[in-house]
Amino acid sequence: MIETMYDYEKALIEKGIKYICGIDEAGRGPLAGPVVAAAVILKENPQFEYVNDSKKLTEKKRLLALEEIKREALAIGIGISSVEDIDRINIYRATAQAMLSAVEALKIKPEYLLVDAMPLVTTIPQKSIIKGDQLSLSIAAASIVAKTARDSYMDEMDKLFPEYKFKQHKGYGTKAHLEALEKYGVTPIHRKTFEPIKTMVTKTLFDNT
User: Does residue 122 share a domain with residue 170?
Assistant: First the structure.
């Protein structure tokens, strides 16, 4: 599995391209919190035991994979689009913004981008790969960096808003999260343009007029 996940990178290396950057995000779907993107440039032929699509790993194995990535990466960049960004420009554009910010945060300028699912507006040559986190080792590494970074942020938000149990669901629309929204209302880290929060905010404004 890991061997076939390096096919895109191998093809580029054979063309003389050295700095290949995998890009992925975490947090497009949740009702709360930012969207976080990561950009990772790996050493040639990286040696991994745990790295795989972040959604297939337990939290413990993701953290082990993260240590592997730090060891095998030439550069790692992280980009964040806030809840305010998401509500202002929409989640798709906020995700692209976070991805480009992650690339800009790299200490090495990439020669080629492998991006999970979405094309980016950049002069750097790129390939957008559907389900890229399952098909490219560089994108899989980026997915793990993005996921662990966002999870860490949401764990901190759990301390600020313990009644919402963000540590458990990371802001996704679980039953417990929706029940907390009904009981306690909307927090500053909730996305006001996402349902059912949009309706809740509108209703509150209407009730107060």
Answer: no
* Whether pTM exceeds 0.90: yes
pLDDT for residue 166 is more than 70? yes
Residue 116: domain span: 4-158
Predicted local distance difference test score (pLDDT) of residue 106: 98
pLDDT exceeds 60 at position 208: no
Domain count, the chain: 2
Confidence of residue 53 (pLDDT cuts 50, 70, 90): low
Say yes or no: 179 and 97 in one domain. no
Verify that 84 and 107 share a domain, yes or no.
yes
Radius of gyration (C-alpha) of the chain in whole angstroms: 18
Q: Which amino acid is at 21?
A: C
**Structure letter (DSSP) for residue 15:** T
| 47 and 126 in a common domain | yes
Torsion of CA 50, 51, 56, 62, to 10 degrees: 70
Element (DSSP H or E) covering residue 69: helix 59-72
Strands 112-116 and 73-81: unpaired
